[in-house]
Amino acid sequence: MTAVKRYVSQGHSLLHWAVEVEVLCRRCGRAGVVRGNPSWRQWHATFLCQGCGHRLETGKIPWQGPVLATGRRPCGFCGHQWVHAEQRFETVWQVQSETAQVPCPNCQKPNSVDLSFSRDNREDSANDPYFGLELALKQDTRLGTLWAFNAEHIHQLKRYTAAQLREGSGTKWSYFTRLPSWIKSAKHREQVLKALSKLEARALTRKWSPNQ
Ligand SMILES: [Zn+2]
Ligand SMILES: [Zn+2]
């Protein structure tokens, strides 16, 4: 009797793995580890680059990742309400101006719209959740990009991907529930596992779980 490989999900959200996040240093480009506490009340993290000494701490450093810029005003020419602006930037460093030139949808004349900025870290944007730095553990495949925070995260993804039977609590916020379908699909299993092994070989952190 061959055992069917099972994975029993604990229903964790992505942030469960955010105690260690392997990122690329913005100053020198080297991979390093953000160490943090992702629980809502104790949200805190630090990053110290071993390559160049660049240091970040939550509360002292503003968000550096993706931002959404939005604004609106009545048209200065015809009074039409509203002239809306909305732009997304991959990092705060790409923001050049606090206003946007937007044509009025009614009279087409250009209006200068003041922008306000909010962090826009989507689940698929492959940034660390504390500072918005680019993740170091990313692997492109023909199907899409795989990414993970750390070695334990990869380990759990590998076990999940290898499993023929996936069980456990799947709330709407559970990480495995929210994974893109190409990762979950049995027909991509070998390809996904191969890419995960490549990621695993590059990881700076170690897996935590004692089983397997
Ligand atoms: Zn550095
Ligand atoms: Zn107008």
Give a short summary of the structure.
By secondary structure, the protein is an alpha+beta fold.
Please provide a written account of the structure.
The chain contains four helices and 13 strands. It is of the alpha+beta class and 212 residues long. The protein folds into two domains: 137 residues, no CATH class; 53 residues. The protein has a four-stranded antiparallel sheet, with no helix packed on it. It has a three-stranded antiparallel sheet with strand order 7-6-10, with no helix packed on it. It is globular, with a radius of gyration of 21 Å. The two termini are 20 Å apart. The relative contact order is 0.20. The chain binds zinc ion (2 copies). One zinc ion binds next to loops.
Give me the side-by-side strand order of the main sheet.
Answer: 2-3-4-5
Our Rg estimate from Cα atoms comes to: 21 Å
Helix/strand-derived category reads alpha+beta
What binds here, in terms of ligands, is:
zinc ion
Mean pLDDT, to the nearest integer, reads 93
E-strand count: 13
Q: What portion of residues is helical?
A: 10-25%
- Low-pLDDT segments, ≥5 res: none
Count of helix runs: 4
